[in-house]
Amino acid sequence: MVGLFGDFEKKNLNDATTAGDAPLGGMTSSNSRKLCWTFAALWGGCGEAGPIDWTTAGPAEPALPSDEPELPAPIPGAEDETELHSQPFRPVPVGHNHEEITETGLPMLPHALAQDLGEANEDSDYDGSMRPVSRYHMDNCRFVETFALMRESYDALVTALSPSAYDRATAIAKFGIILHQVQDFYAHSNWVEARQTDLFDRGNLLPPTGRTGTLLGPMFVLREDLPPSFAINRASTGIEARLPIVVGPTFSRVGLITGTYDNVDRSVCPAAASVAHGDWYAPLPATHLYLAKDDPGAVLHEEAVALARRQTTEEFCRLDRLVRLRHGDRASAFLYDTWQVNRSLQASSCGNSRAIVAAAWNTAL
């Protein structure tokens, strides 16, 4: 399998090109394979994703509160604004933007570098090769495709951060794509509607797979390949209409979806759980008719922004772990020096990255 760590059958996981790139410890091909399987739960196995056990996907989920969040008050003077600023996730009259979320989510980086990453992030909304494709924006329930692209981007990003072959342009571009995806997760999915206050992924080495029936937090990932023996129940109005309930043979869970959007690739959301994304430039429809929280007038907009900012921080922590795993401790030091990382802020945000990576090595050996 060729993936973030290279070909596990033929190549040592940490095949250092120079003495300065020495990994945490030597590994044989056999041990590399063990490490692959150690991480199988994070990325679906070593080349082949195992089947979901549909009878034990989870216990019954407690009923959600039925009270609907109060709609945010209109922003004073917004209707009089003529200059457009990029809102988090979409351009609207006033507010935050992807660049601002990136800068405030990466306090350990110098402002100029965080700004470059923010601009690369916003390229996903303006580059014609990325703008209409769901996997760049977490649209149309394309979780599998989005997380696969994240892993591919991390592969290229970590390669670009090798001390022996540093490629700043590639690193900035790939990290910008990743940050756009994770920020859009909170704007385009129903995560915050389900009263989730934690991140969808943290403390791991790789993003999840996003396959139907896997869990992100307590939520059941929903796509159109849900077995027919499962039922989907959904309210017709109010915030509950954004929260399909998956009813299985022995359990029920809240289903995780993203809004449907007219991209070049069709929606793979189940018909019974489809909610339109909604357009930023149109008047906001009734709550149950759209899912996006891009607009500051949208329900739960601020909650989505706050989680997007925290996930941005977590992705830098993940990057540090992956650089250490691929290239070794000296490469992490190279990253800190080259990107002028504030080590104190990094440590307070990420904890002991080296200990996490060392534990992964030790588990595989």
Structure description:
The chain contains ten helices and nine strands. The chain has helices at residues 29-38, 40-43, 98-105, 111-126, 143-160, 168-188, 301-327, 329-338, 343-350, 353-364; strands spanning 2-3, 6-7, 85-86, 91-92, 215-216, 219-221, 231-233, 245-247, 252-256. Helix 3 (98-105) runs antiparallel to helix 4, helix 5 packs across helix 7 (301-327) and helix 6 (168-188) packs antiparallel against helix 7. The model is unreliable at 1-51, 58-88 and 91-95 (pLDDT under 50).
Characteristic terms for this protein:
365 residues; disordered N terminus; five-stranded mixed β-sheet; alpha+beta; 7% strand
Mind summarizing the main beta sheet? 5 strands, mixed
Main-sheet strand order equals 5-6-9-8-7
Number of extended strands: 9
Radius of gyration: 21 Å
The share of residues in helices is: 25-40%
Q: Average pLDDT across residues?
A: 79
Helix segment tally: 10
β-strand amount:
5-15%
Class derived from helix and strand content: alpha+beta
| N-to-C CA distance | 20 Å
Element string (H = helix, E = strand): EEHHEEHHHHEEEEEHHHH
The parts where pLDDT drops under 50 for at least 5 residues are 1-51, 58-88, 91-95
Shape: globular
